[in-house]
Amino acid sequence: MFLVARFILGAGIGGTYVAVPVYISEALPLKHRTLGLGLINDVYYVGGLLSAGITYGTSFLQSTWAWRLPALCQIVFTVISIIALPFAPESPRWLAYQGRKDEALAAIAQVTSDGDISDPAVQLQFVQICESLDYEKEMETPSIKELCVNKGYRKRMLLVFSVAIFSMMTGSNIFSYYLGTALTNAGITDSTAQLQVNVVLNAFCLIICLFGTYMADRIGRKMLAIISTALCTVTLFIIGALTKEFGNSTNKSAIYANVAMMFLAQGFYSFGWTPILQMYPPELLSYQIRSIGMSWCITWQNMTILIPIFAFPIAMNNIGWITYMMNGGWNLFQLAIIAKYWVETRNLSLEEVSLLFDGEIHSQVTGVKKIIEGVPSKLDAEAVLAQVKPDIKHSTEPVDE
């Protein structure tokens, strides 16, 4: 029964990893989108902290409740989500695509201007969304073949695949899987002591990934990935060197240095890849392929993680420290791909990202970030709004909350 429950849980988690980033990217205003998307993965460490704390507390129970209680506690946040979801606004882009434009306008106003649909920033965002979606409606939903043939779609999907693969192969799985061995070598063999170390590690990674999310709008997604990958690469080479020189040694200084590098490596990964994993892919994808693109992203993540799970243990047993060096070498390849081919999406609305792939924005409205910040649009706002007056004819009064 426990195994069956794990399969059901896995299916549910897979669905949420597709739906949540799609919804948050479409529903949140530009100024909050980075934080919202980054927190999807960041709060993983909140769960890790709670899990480690609860497991530590129940480890003293002399019954099956030592493992039953931690498993049961996982239902708490699921119930909270089910209760809260009916009160969340629908995606304005989904509403507009369905032709429910009055509701789309109200949804934008709800998250942007406290329900005031007469706010020019709200109306201009509404126009940009509607015009861009009208352009997409003129085209049929792309098939898998078209995703490969069309230049814009192909580049979007290749970048999404790169996120899925690189995030699983940067070295984090080596760091997490072999931390227990490193702790044992350092003399921390007691299971309770190792639990305490995990609590500290989760708290450390939570702080680091929140800082990374904060920096995503300041240095950009691309630079965040470059810095995170570069730092992980350095630690991989250092761990490889320490393992080569002191792998079978009882030198405590070397063993402690190895543990310290494992900790730092987890932090370096958390700085960039933890927030980027759910932040960057939905921003890259246009409306018609956002859901299917995220589905493929999660699929490739789960396929790629099989490599470190099954292949790395064999490699560690046969070539030892060289495994770390090989992973570091792979990271250099990742760095080259990110530096050359990744595009920057910060400060762009989802509709404006099309400029990076299609060479144009499919709307008269541009510069949404500046509009939201109060900088006048280069366009005559009244002229733009007049063209879609039937869609926003109710926009003279604020929406009643």
Range of strand content: under 5%
The CATH topology of the largest domain turns out to be Growth Hormone, Chain: A
- What's the overall average pLDDT, rounded? 86
The counted number of beta strands is: 0
Principal-axis shape: globular
Q: What is the architecture of the largest domain at the second tier of CATH?
A: Up-down Bundle
Secondary structure layout plus pairing:
Elements: H1 2-27, H2 30-42, H3 44-58, H4 65-73, H5 75-84, H6 92-97, H7 101-112, H8 120-137, H9 144-149, H10 151-169, H11 172-177, H12 179-185, H13 191-219, H14 221-246, H15 252-284, H16 287-304, H17 306-319, H18 322-341, H19 354-358, H20 368-372, H21 381-387
Helix pairs in contact: 1-2, 1-15, 1-16, 2-13, 2-15, 3-4, 3-13, 7-8, 10-15, 10-16, 12-15, 13-14, 13-15, 14-15, 14-18, 15-16
Plain-language structure description:
By secondary structure, the protein is mainly alpha-helical. The protein folds into two domains: 2-42 and 141-341, Up-down Bundle (Growth Hormone, Chain: A); 92-138 and 362-392, no CATH class. The protein is 76% helix and 0% strand. It has 21 helices and no strands. Helix 3 packs antiparallel against helix 4 and helix 3 packs antiparallel against helix 13. It is globular, with a radius of gyration of 24 Å. The protein starts with a helix and ends in a 14-residue tail after the last helix. Mean pLDDT is 86; it is low at 392-401.
